[in-house]
Inverse folding.
């Protein structure tokens, strides 16, 4: 029986969605073994072979139309896959970034030629995607970016540095957020595609040493006079980047919240098992009233978060999810996730601080959820604007 006895939203109960989730679960059980995941942690990244395997299994581009090499599904299919990644602890495999954040940029804003050129390789796993937004001096404030992409013949010269880029070491398809008109502020931002296989002047910096997410490569990227052809500008015209980014953010924040729910469920499940087995002062830790109260608080928080996030998934499918509602989901779910995972670690005592126990990794990996995709403080600003 699930720890959180909350039924999935109606849109997720379609037999096709259930079958996809089952297929993904079998794939991860077979291919993402604990030994293989440990190898990713040791290497600091997931090897490209796994991305190709995922593509062959139909797990990449699930919501991309079949004419572009995808699965022909929709957001529900992506939610089901992201949930399975979290349930099976497939650390480092940035499926949500690839499927739910980056590919939709190309589908929604690219020309038909661009879709035909890029999406099939992204859906097969031949190409791995990243998006380069943050810079050493600009995080949440994207209008403050300094990377430029200035016209040069029949193309653009990209100059600048990016940081905190997930998949930075492995990606060969990178959406770069740059200013094609530095004097125009947000109206001068554009999105350009860099194919790293033939990008002279492109350099990957060191993989960043993080608190958690050991198997996820996060990197610095440098663009020194990198020339890209004009048809690598995403869409039909310059200056559309900020609008394109804003259009896709609600989905990004919702999928982060979906991951937070799964983390809370995993944390509660492993903690309940632990406190029912571990004894102190002649009785199970579970039998202490304090333990029961703490777990009850955690279940209550996680349940409220799951009900709200489920409603947001249904709203997204209905076309009614707005920026504020998505910000609330991201804020509440990630803050609840941190509180729940931290409380669960505390109930493990000293063993909670040992990486051999799942709760330790869940705790370290959970911390960044309140930062990326827009920090909790940014979410509060967005929500406040609706008051």
């Amino acid at each position: 029986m699930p720890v959180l006895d909350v039924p999935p939203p109606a849109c997720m109960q379609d037999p096709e969605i259930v079958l996809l989730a089952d297929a993904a679960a079998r794939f991860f059980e077979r291919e993402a073994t604990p030994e293989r995941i440990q190898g990713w942690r040791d290497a600091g990244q997931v090897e490209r072979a796994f991305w190709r395997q995922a593509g062959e299994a139909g797990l990449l581009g699930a919501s991309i139309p079949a004419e572009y090499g995808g699965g022909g599904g929709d957001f529900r299919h992506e939610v089901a896959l992201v949930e399975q990644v979290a349930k099976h602890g497939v650390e480092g495999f940035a499926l949500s970034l690839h499927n739910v954040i980056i590919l939709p940029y190309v589908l929604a804003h690219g020309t038909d030629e661009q879709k035909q050129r890029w999406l099939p390789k992204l859906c097969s796993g031949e190409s791995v995607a990243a998006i380069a937004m943050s810079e050493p001096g600009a995080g949440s404030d994207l209008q403050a970016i300094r990377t430029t992409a200035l016209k040069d013949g029949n193309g653009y010269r990209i100059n600048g540095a990016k940081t905190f880029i997930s998949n930075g070491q492995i990606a060969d398809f990178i959406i770069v957020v740059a200013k094609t008109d530095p004097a125009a502020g947000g109206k001068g931002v554009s999105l350009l595609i860099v194919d790293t296989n033939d990008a002279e002047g492109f350099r990957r910096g060191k993989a960043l040493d993080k608190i958690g997410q050991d198997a996820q490569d996060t990197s610095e990227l440098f663009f020194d006079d990198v020339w890209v052809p004009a048809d690598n500008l995403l869409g039909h015209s310059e200056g559309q980047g900020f609008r394109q980014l804003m259009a896709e953010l609600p989905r990004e924040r919702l999928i982060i919240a979906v991951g937070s729910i799964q983390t809370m469920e995993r944390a509660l499940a492993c903690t309940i098992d632990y406190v029912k087995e571990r004894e102190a002062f002649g009785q199970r830790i579970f039998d202490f009233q304090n333990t029961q109260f703490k777990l009850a608080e955690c279940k209550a928080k996680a349940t409220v978060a799951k009900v709200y996030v489920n409603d947001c998934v249904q709203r997204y499918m209905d076309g009614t999810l707005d920026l504020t509602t998505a910000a609330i989901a991201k804020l509440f779910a990630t803050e609840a996730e941190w509180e729940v995972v931290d409380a669960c670690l505390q109930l493990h005592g000293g063993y909670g601080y040992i990486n051999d126990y799942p709760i330790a990794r869940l705790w370290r990996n959970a911390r960044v959820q309140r930062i990326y995709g827009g920090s909790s403080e940014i979410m509060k600003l967005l929500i406040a604007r609706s008051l």
User: Anything to note?
Assistant: Strands lie at 129-132, 148-151, 155-166, 173-179, 189-195, 202-207, 218-229, 279-280, 283-284. The first helix runs from residue 15 to 31. The radius of gyration is 21 Å. The mean pLDDT is 95.
